[in-house]
Amino acid sequence: MNNNKIKTGLAWLAGLLLASIIIFFISQGATSTSTASASKDSTNLLQMFKSGAGAGRNDTFCALTTGPSNSCLGTPQALCSTDLDMAKIAWKYFENNYNPSTGLYNAADKYPSTTMWDTGSALAATIAARDFDLIDDKTFDERIRAMFKTLNSMELFNKEAPNKVYNTIKGEMVDYRNQPSPDGIGVSALDLARMVSWLNTLGCMHPKYAYPAKKSIERWDMKRLIKDGQMFGFYRDPATKNIVVAQEGRLGYEQYAGKIFRQLGYDQHVAATYNNEFRTSINIYDVPIAYDRRDPRDLGAYNYVVTESYAMDAIENGIDDENRPLLDNIYNVQKRRWEETGIITAVSEDNIDQKPYFLYNTIFTAGLPWNTTTDKGVRYDNLKTTSVKAALSMALLYPNDPYSKELVYTVSSAYDPDRGWYSGIYESGGGYNKAITANTNGIVLSMLLYKKYGEFYPMCKKCQREIKTAIIPAKTCDVCTTQ
């Protein structure tokens, strides 16, 4: 009896042990299969994210966030390390003078005021900074969107177009002393043209901003600013406070701006050509220099023959049979002065770091060659400068001419590494002109962008990315019936 109980108990134990072993192996097999299946699923999921192959899609967020193809702009020319060092110095100015509340940059170092001209220069700098990887996509987008927010909400002079000056912190209309001016002080068509030029390049190189750029321009009522084939500006008469409409632009700047408005479809048959009725010329060092014969005593504005307008026309609007000889003469006459006098010559209008704080250093003005003057005609020949932006512009446009080496060598140290490029160097041995501005540093960056890609408007037109506004029907003729 006891033996039978023992045998029965052992049999039960053996059975339980065998069952446990069988269950264990079955369990292990199932786990192994499950793990293998899970591992296979994980591999497939990982592969899907890597390759983008899933649910019939062949793209990923990596591909979708990549910018548009700019292959139509042509093959970019590589910039050397010196180019990029120059760009970094120039961009330092804009790092120091950015106002995130408005997206605007100060026109002069640490002074919270700007014009549409200087905002155009700052926009050029921002486009170049992104292209040279001085800022990343997020920083670029934040700055451009902040600027558009201001452009599309800022108070317009007489509800027609941007005022001549704005406070860069508050975005409000001010006068030239940066004091609030609720009614504004006027409008400059030339300044608006520079803004249009760089809004066009922005929309071309970054098509997602083409529509905001177009809408910013379409806020402006241009009926009184462009007529009879010319440009007009507004100013408020100090005595009567009435708005005065006056023709704006003289040979050089007039053609730079007139071509830009013509590209939008406006009739600019007078302003957009250098061969208009107001052109005449004078020989300086046996080089024929074109200038505007309109009398400043009648119209209140001088014709300043300087480097900047011709250089900007070349890089932004393009070089053609009409402006090429004029540009050559602007370069050659300054080279000839250097050959005759030993003075490194590169002239333009510039801020200066002492009174009167802004001067036109010219090839020809008011009947005088090499005249340095205020906008009121007061001469300051003792404050002549070699302009950094003029020197670098000419050197980049004429890189194979020996004089270009002299120009770059002369101004290559005219900067503060923590603030940007100076405006120039005093000819008379007065040291650096340490005024630092958005325009000088913006032109340095835009010239380097030109070196990389070439002429901006022709490049964008080739890509069919130029701005087309709904302001008036587009016209292709140079001589059109005045609207």
UniProtKB/TrEMBL annotation:
Species assigned in the record: Thiothrix lacustris
Domain annotation DUF3131: ranges: 86-453
Protein name: DUF3131 domain-containing protein
Classification via InterPro entries: DUF3131
Highest taxon listed in the record's lineage: Bacteria
A matching Pfam family: DUF3131
